[in-house]
Amino acid sequence: MEVSKTWSWKMILVLIVAFLAEWGFPWSSNASGKELSTPSNKLFSNVTQIEAGQFDGFAVKEDGSAWAWGAYNASKVYYANSSAFSPVKLPIEQVKQISRGDRFYLVLKKDGTVWASGANEHGQLGNGVQNDNISLEPIQVKGLSGIKAISAGSTHGLAIDEEGKVWAWGGNDQGQLGIDSRNNALLPVKVEGLPPIVALDAGQFGSIALDNGGVIWSWGIKKYTANATDEVRPPARLTGNGEFAAVADAGDKGVALSFNGTVWTWSNYSPDQSTVLLQPVQVKDLSDIISISSYSAVKSDGTVWQWQNDQNGGTYKQVSGIEKAAKVSDAWSHHFALLEDGRVMSWGQNFFGNTGLGVIDERIETPQPIPNPIRIVLNGEEVTMPVPPIVVNQSTYVPLRGVFEKIGVKVKWDVPTRSVMASKGDTTIVLNSVTGETSVNGKVIPSDQKPISLRGSMMVPLRVIGETIGAKVDWEPATYSITIEQGE
C-alpha cells in the first residue's frame, strides 16, 4: 500500500505525541537535581556488582550478564569512538565480577576463568602478547583457573585463586606487579612473599591486598619523582594487628574497613621521600560502616558517606537522597551506589554518559536511579545498537545508522553543510544540524528538532522515521520499548 507522504509525516507526528503522552513516556531532565520520571519497575535492576571506571560504569546482573555505559568505548574499548549514555550489554555471559582498568577491563566468569578486553600496550590482556592491537571482545587470560576474585589497575591485572595465591600481569614500570623486576609480565605470574590472600585492589601506582588474618599488604611505587628515579616497594605489611575486613585503592592512598566498622586510610607513596609509613589513620568519627570504596562508605543503616583525605585521616559527609544502599563504587568524578534491592543510584560528572542515566546533562548533582535502556523494536524484532536511544528536550533520539539502514534508508553525513541526508526511493530528507531546518524533497517542514553530535555519534530524532517513510511509531510502557512498524 502506498502511503501519502503528506499524510505520513503529519499523522505519524500526531501518533507519536498522542501515544507517548498517553502512555507516560519517561521524559527526563536532571541538571537541577529533579528526579527522573521513570516508572519504578523499569529501572535497571537485579544488579549484583557495580564498578566505576574513569569515565564510565560497569554492572553485573544476577543472570550473569555484564553491562557498560559511558566512555568505556571512547577509550577505544569495544565500540570505538562513541559514548553510551545508557547501559549496553557486553558480549560475554556467565559473569561473576567485572573490573575496569584505564583502557581495558577484566571479567571473572562463574567457572573461574578470567577474560580481558581492550588495549594491550602493556600486556594487560594477559595473552602472552604486548602490542597496540585493541581486543573488541573479551579474550581469555592464559594460565588462570579456579580464580575467586580479580582487580584491574591502570595497566595491570590481579587475581586470587582458590588457595589464596595472587597472580599478576601487565604493566610493571612502577613495581605494581610485586615481582623481582620492573619488566611487564605478558602472562600471569605468582606474587611471592604473601600469605593466603582473601581480597585485593589494583591501583594506578601499585596494589594492595588483605590476607586471611586481617592484615594489609602493599606494593608498588614508594617514591615518585619527575626524573625517572622512582623507588618501588616489594610486598610489605602495614602496621596493625589483623583488625581489617576489606581494602580499597585510592591512588596515592589506601583505604581499609576494620571489623569494628571504622574506616582507615594511609599513604601508599610519597612524591619526595623514600620513607613512607604504611600506618593507617582512622577517618574521624566515621563508624558503623559495612562497605567501602575509594572515597565512599555505606553504613549499616543503608546511608552513603564520602570523605576527603588529609594528613589527619580526612573528613566526611553524608550523600543525601540514598537509602538502603549495600555497596558503593567511585571514580574521580562520578559515583554509584548499589541498593539492597539490586537497583543502582548514580551521580556526578556525566560528559561521556558516565552516570548511565540516559540524559545529556554534563553533571548530575542529586543521586538518581539508573533506568533500563530504551528498547527499539523494528517490525517485531529488537534492534541492537552500540549507542542506546537518548531523550533530549522530550524527544527520543537514535543513532543515525542504528535504525535507518535496517529499513532500507540510505544515510550519509554531508560535511560542507553539516547535514544528515537520508533517502529511500524518491524521498530525500535533509536535517541541518546547524540551522535546525528539516526538508523533505526540498520542501521545508515544521520541526523544532535537529541532529546532534553526541560524543562521536550522530543522533537524530526518531519521529523522522515516521515522517519520511510512513512508519508507525508507538511507545510500549509494559516492555519499555518503542515499536516501529514499517508501512507497505
UniProtKB/TrEMBL annotation:
Residues 377-484 form the Copper amine oxidase-like N-terminal domain. Gene3D superfamilies: Copper amine oxidase-like, N-terminal domain, Regulator of chromosome condensation 1/beta-lactamase-inhibitor protein II. It holds the Pfam family RCC1. It comes from the Bacteria. Transmembrane segments: none annotated. This is Copper amine oxidase-like N-terminal domain-containing protein. It comes from Cohnella herbarum. The lineage of its organism: Bacteria, Bacillati, Bacillota, Bacilli, Bacillales.
